[in-house]
Amino acid sequence: MQRLVDGFHHFQKCVFPEKKKLFSELAAGQKPHSLFITCSDSRIDPFLLTHADPGEIFVVRNAGNTVPTSDLGAGGGESPTLEYAVRVLKVATIVVCGHSHCGAMAALLDPSLTNKLPAVRHWLTAAKHIKEEIEQGGLRPSERNDAEAVVKRNVLLQLENLQTYDFIEQAHKEGKLNLSGWFYRFESGEVETIEPGQQDFKPL
Ligand SMILES: [Zn+2]
Questions:
Q1: CATH 3.40.1050.10 domain range(s) in the chain
Q2: In this structure, what are the phi and psi dihedrals at residue 188, rounded to the nearest 5 degrees?
Q3: What is the whole-number distance in angstroms between the Cα of residue 97 and the centre of ligand 1?
Q4: How far is the CA of 184 from the centre of ligand 1 (A)?
Q5: Residues with Cβ < 8 Å from 108, sequence gap 6 or more?
Q6: What is the distance in A from the centroid of ligand 1 to the CA of 64?
Q7: Residues with Cβ within 8 Å of residue 149, at least 6 apart in sequence
Q8: The whole model's pTM is what?
Q9: Ligand 1 geometric centre to CA of 179 (Å)
Q10: How many CA atoms lie within 13 A of 108 on its CB side?
Q11: Which CATH architecture has domain 31-203?
Q12: In this predicted structure, what is the pLDDT of residue 72?
């Protein structure tokens, strides 16, 4: 706890004065340009990664950066966040960002890791198609035990899940909304990207 308190005092003394004008302007409302969906992992920081200021990015974070399909409703909190970001804030871009060394994706490959974590196991049903693909040979043999390939496949699957929401699909078709998948290799500071319909990730 002390680390948090010390950190806040540093923010109050050193950071806030520099951004006082920005925070004052943001009190009138937010107009983020992007919705960033990423993992809860402490090693991922969307604002640091994109050099963004407060007010620029709307964020969804959960284990494994997953998006429930629209038929699963508002249970996890992701759906209302998507709705608000696209329909009210009218973000121009949605990024789904997976990352290297993702514990959630490791648990997908090895369910024994979630033996004492029933909520995590249930949550990962949003990515169950990947498990089926691995078991049924849908992934290339070289990819089946490759954690990075599984993270990337998960990013693609979540881009597909996003498109099950009619307001996202419509805005995307009309060219008002970009959908982008990212793979962030934090240990080397690299990002690879993909868009719906593409086959391979490319360096950003
Ligand atoms: Zn993760």
A1: 31-203
A2: -120, 0
A3: 9
A4: 10
A5: 64, 124, 127, 130, 131, 150, 154
A6: 5
A7: 139, 140, 142, 143
A8: 0.91
A9: 20
A10: 32
A11: 3-Layer(aba) Sandwich (3.40)
A12: 76
36 CA distance to ligand 1 middle (Å): 14
The CA 43 to ligand 1 mean position distance, Å, reads: 9
Q: Are 72 and 78 in contact (CB under 8 A)?
A: no
Task: Round the average pLDDT of the chain to a whole number and report it.
Answer: 90
**Helices 147-162, 128-136: inter-axial angle, 10-degree rounding:** 130
40 CA → ligand 1 middle, Å: 6
Distance in Å, CA 109 to ligand 1 centroid: 13
- Write the single-letter amino acid at 13: K
Q: What is the pLDDT of residues 93-150, one digit of tens each?
A: 999 999 999 998 888 888 788 888 888 888 777 677 777 776 666 666 566 667 898 8
Write out the two tokens for 4: 């948090």
